Amino acid sequence: MDWTFGLGIGLLVWIAFVFDLFGFVARDELLLRGLMLVASGFYLVYYFFVAGSPLWDALATNGALAGVNLAMIFVVIAERTTFTMSRETRDIYAHFPLFTPGQFRRLLKAAEDVRMRAPREVTRQGAPVERVWFLLAGSAEIEKDGHRARLDPGHFIGEMGFLSQRPASATVTLSLGARALAWDVALLARLLERKPALRVALGAQFNLDLVEKLARARPGDAPV
Ligand SMILES: Nc1ncnc2c1ncn2[C@@H]1O[C@@H]2COP(=O)(O)O[C@H]2[C@H]1O
């Protein structure tokens, strides 16, 4: 095949070099990977045509690298978008605006989705918090020092004890038919240790939840 175009097949290597160069200065992982993938394409064409017969070793190794890069591009896209989430998962994700889709998937994977077949006490005032809960549907009754209040869906339960490493500040009972996500505190702590970005996101989400709970209370309200 005639590759001269007046410039020679070596032009492909220079074009690939420009894409690689822009890739190396890109700060965004997806952009970097995309540019490197395009560069790989030019290299592969070059290796195919540069000699009398294709340079199979170079084609195989560079092709494999391009394949891995392409797979990682799909992973990064999945981490950044909600494309692959079911409608139900997307509805739950709406409660977690401070998480990237990827962080949310990780958090959800560590959770148990529990539906209450009977009212269930999930924290007891003064006792250690065993699980952090997020109420998705139904309601919860909060009882503290004889005062009662209702908690609606969209709030955490047990986050105060988890954050402060103190016993539960109130007794909370989930209603019959309620649905909640539950995280074992030891497993959650381990997960957050391994994933610092997730720890930051969950910390911010807890803060937001506490602000909403505080905003509902009026000065002089009963403690719950
Ligand atoms: N005033 C309040 N308003 C809303 N939720 C509360 C209030 N007090 C306690 N809770 C919740 O009840 C939980 C009891 O266990 P924690 O103290 O770990 O975390 C507490 C909060 O999730």
UniProtKB/TrEMBL annotation:
TM segment ranges: 6-25, 30-49, 55-77
Entry-linked SUPFAM superfamilies: cAMP-binding domain-like (SSF51206)
PROSITE patterns: CNMP_BINDING_3 (PS50042)
Entry-linked CDD domains: CAP_ED (cd00038)
SMART domains for the chain: cNMP (SM00100)
Pfam families in the record: cNMP_binding, POPDC1-3
Segment forming the signal sequence: none
Domain of life of the organism encoding this protein: Bacteria
Keywords, comma-separated and alphabetical: Membrane, Transmembrane, Transmembrane helix
Domain Cyclic nucleotide-binding: residue ranges: 95-192
Gene3D superfamilies for the chain: Jelly Rolls
Name assigned to this protein: Crp/Fnr family transcriptional regulator
Species per Swiss-Prot/TrEMBL record: Litorisediminicola beolgyonensis
